[in-house]
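Good morning C.,

I know you're traveling, so I'll keep this short. The sequence:
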Amino acid sequence: MNDLVSAEFVVSGLVQGVGFRYFVYRNATSLDLNGFVKNLSNGDVLTVVEGRKDRVEELYNRLKIGPMRAYVKSVSQKYYGYQGIFDSFEIR
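The tokens, ready to paste straight into the viewer:
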């Protein structure tokens, strides 16, 4: 199980009101990742995710691009040991 990780990504820029959470949902579920995505009050988007490390890193790479109408300024990342607390991916 060494290849399983948990991670937290905070995306800054023009990322609310442009379908960003749905973009994250589609990508995370297609990569078979679990967790959630939600808007933060400061205009950022938080994604908490867990799964295979290579797939979590692929999601991170996709977050740096975002959907067509978004402008991603930055993506902060924090990796943790795998926790296994999610059994699906949801939009909050």
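Safe travels,
E.
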